[in-house]
């Protein structure tokens, strides 16, 4: 039974000391939540460039967004992924439950492995995408961009399964870049060389354990580490000390976002609108419309949205396609409109950059079929570039190209090289 306690009378703003009044008046300027790694991140922040990630204070950049990007591609970059929503799902029916709510066949996911997946509503529209970690035969961790606890709990009714959000209880780090493997070896994680792409294992740390998976969001050699919140700072310090001679640097989201674009990876509510956030019906997307059709396993039996997805495929009801574009010139086409023959509007760019690795002007765009599908010629983007304090309209030719825009052999090399 819950225990009721009497609260002390609140101090009014008039009675409060001046410092307290100032804090009360400026509380809206400070995001409410800090991650388990926040003390270390705050100490490194030089740009004071923050954004709201699910209520957490997260950095766009920490010291220099350009150099932070190159830290990913030339050394080792450390990024705090703790705000990512994390669910612990376990029980004798956990596999069957996850098989019913996600697109891929969970029975094929062995303990000690990770796969990228997505889940849909009953109409076949994507609710979110994320990673599913199989920690044991009956225990999983599902990581996602958005929060889905009520939906997961409702979906679990009648199953021998427990679903619990552990976002605040578990700290997460992404360690990415060519020297990331060497940093882990130097930090004393014996046996990390045995991890192949999408493998995971537990390693001793500070009287407990840390889960390390060979996964990431950069298209580079990299790992993700999950640790109980109370052990987070000791893990951060262990990695930073070990990585000092390997060029380890903490980074913000802007650098990560550039790397993921080069890898051709999509972000929920940036490259597509999730079903729960869409206000207009024409913003809804099926997996095949955002490049996630490869996940769909029609052989595994029923799953959320199966009937609608199958009908859309057989009756050719798919309306959109997400494509990679190569654009002439070197001016990024962020949020540019895509045209056919410079006159007919056919889509919109969701992410764009000049890629230092690919040496190309690249973008992701959502187009109305058949454009980008069977019709890929004579596509143009409308870019507004600043020229001497005045915007100039530029029409640049766009070519549909395969993703990823770059492919690095070190990402999948076994064992990884000791850079």
TrEMBL record:
Coiled coil: none annotated. GO terms for molecular function: transferase activity. Residues 66-300 form the GCVT N-terminal domain. The keyword Transferase applies. Substrate binds at residue 224. Keywords: Transferase. Residues 322-407 form the Aminomethyltransferase C-terminal domain. PANTHER family: AMINOMETHYLTRANSFERASE, AMINOMETHYLTRANSFERASE, MITOCHONDRIAL. This is Aminomethyl transferase family protein. It comes from Mesorhizobium waimense. The lineage of its organism: Bacteria, Pseudomonadati, Pseudomonadota, Alphaproteobacteria, Hyphomicrobiales.
């Amino acid at each position: 039974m819950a225990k009721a306690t009497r609260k002390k009378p609140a101090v009014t703003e008039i009675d409060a000391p001046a410092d307290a009044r100032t804090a009360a008046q400026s509380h809206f300027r400070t995001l409410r939540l800090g991650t388990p790694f926040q003390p270390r991140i705050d100490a490194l922040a030089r740009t004071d460039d923050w954004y709201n990630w699910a209520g957490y204070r997260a950095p766009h950049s920490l010291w220099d967004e350009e150099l932070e990007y190159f830290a990913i591609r030339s050394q080792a970059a450390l990024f705090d992924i703790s705000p990512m929503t994390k669910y612990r799902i376990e029980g004798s029916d956990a596999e069957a439950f996850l098989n019913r709510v996600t697109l891929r066949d969970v029975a094929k996911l062995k303990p000690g492995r990770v796969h990228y997946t997505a889940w849909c509503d009953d109409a076949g529209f994507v609710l979110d995408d994320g990673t599913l970690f199989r920690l044991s035969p009956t225990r999983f961790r599902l990581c996602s961009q958005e929060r889905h606890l009520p939906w997961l709990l409702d979906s679990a009714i009648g199953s021998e399964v427990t679903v619990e959000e552990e976002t605040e209880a578990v700290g997460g780090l992404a360690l990415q870049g060519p020297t990331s493997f060497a940093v882990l070896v130097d930090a004393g994680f014996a046996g990390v060389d045995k991890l192949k792409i999408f493998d995971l294992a537990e390693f001793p740390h500070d009287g407990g354990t840390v889960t390390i998976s060979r996964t990431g969001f950069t298209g580079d050699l990299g790992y993700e580490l999950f640790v109980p919140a109370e052990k987070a700072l000791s893990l951060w310090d262990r990695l930073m000390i070990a990585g000092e001679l390997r060029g380890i640097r903490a980074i913000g989201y802007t650098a990560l976002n550039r790397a993921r674009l080069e890898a051709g990876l999509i972000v929920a509510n940036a490259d597509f609108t999730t079903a729960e956030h869409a206000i207009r019906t024409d913003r809804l997307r099926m997996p095949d419309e955002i490049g996630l059709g490869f996940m769909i396993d029609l052989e595994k039996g029923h799953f959320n949205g199966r009937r609608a997805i199958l009908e859309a495929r057989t009756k050719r009801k798919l309306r959109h396609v997400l494509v990679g574009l190569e654009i002439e010139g070197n001016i990024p086409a962020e949020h540019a409109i895509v045209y056919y023959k410079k006159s007919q509007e056919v889509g919109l760019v969701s992410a764009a950059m000049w890629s230092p690795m690919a040496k190309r002007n690249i973008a992701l765009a959502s187009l109305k079929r058949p454009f980008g599908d069977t019709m890929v010629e004579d596509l143009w983007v409308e870019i507004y570039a600043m020229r001497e304090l005045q915007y100039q309209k530029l029409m640049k030719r766009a070519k549909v190209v395969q993703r990823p825009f770059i492919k690095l052999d070190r990402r999948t090399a076994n064992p990884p090289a000791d850079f």
